[in-house]
Design a protein that fits this description.
This protein is α+β, with helices and mostly antiparallel strands. It has a six-stranded antiparallel beta sheet with strand order 3-2-1-6-5-4, covered by helices on one side. It is globular, with a radius of gyration of 13 Å. It starts with a helix and ends with a strand. The chain is built from two helices and six strands; from the N terminus they run αβββαβββ. It has helices at residues 5-13, 45-53, and strands at 18-22, 27-31, 34-37, 68-76, 79-88, 91-97.
Length: 98
């Protein structure tokens, strides 16, 4: 089981819009009512990249993540999601949508 699978399970089971990981911030679920924090501690770029490197397809892994936007599908145990990684310098934002 990948580190992000628990958060993805919550995203899918609760029918939320998206799950967002941002350097220096917490992980949030985007809901109809706004944002809900999933974890309390802020994450580093390295932590976020490490978690998503576990699920990135083999063709995306070399140099992951590339500068700019990288997209790939991931079939989690809870269901399929689309992962969008936006890397700008040393900052990343990853958005996961069902």
């Amino acid at each position: 089981m990948a580190r992000i699978d628990g958060a993805i399970e919550r995203l899918i089971k609760q029918g939320e819009r998206e799950l967002v990981f941002v350097t220096g911030a917490s992980v949030f679920l985007s809901t109809e009512k706004g944002k809900t924090r999933v974890i309390k501690q802020p994450l580093t770029t390295r932590q976020i990249i490490g978690a998503f490197l576990e699920v990135a397809p083999a063709d995306v892994r070399p140099g992951f993540p590339a500068e700019g936007v990288t997209r790939f599908p991931y079939k989690s145990p809870s269901g399929a999601v689309l992962v969008l990684v936006d890397k700008q310098d040393s900052r990343v934002q990853v958005t996961v949508t069902p």
